[in-house]
Write a structure and sequence with these properties.
Length: 102
Amino acid sequence: MGYYRRAGTIIEGWVARNHPQSINYAWQLVTPNTEWNYTRNGWRVDATVIVDDFNSILTNEITVPAYIKDNLLAKKVEVFQYFLAKTAFVADVSAEAKAAVS
C-alpha cells in the first residue's frame, strides 16, 4: 500500500473516532478550523495523534513541527494526507540512501 493510501487509512480511523459525520473520506474536503471548529492548540493535539498513529505503521518515523500543523489548520485535511505521505516517502528514501553509503 502506498504512502498516500496509508496516510488516508490512518486519518480515516481517526475521523471515525472523532468526527464520524465525516467518514468514508468526506474528511478530505474538510477544513479543520471551519467545519470542525478547531482552535490552533486543539488541532495541534489531534494532528499529533494522527502523526503518532501514522508513525506506528512506518519503518522510519516522521515529525511534523507545530508551525506545519498550524498551517494545516486552515487547509483541507487532504493536504495533511499529502504532507504525511510525502514526508514518509522522503524519510524512507533518505534512510535507504544512508544505508547504501554506509
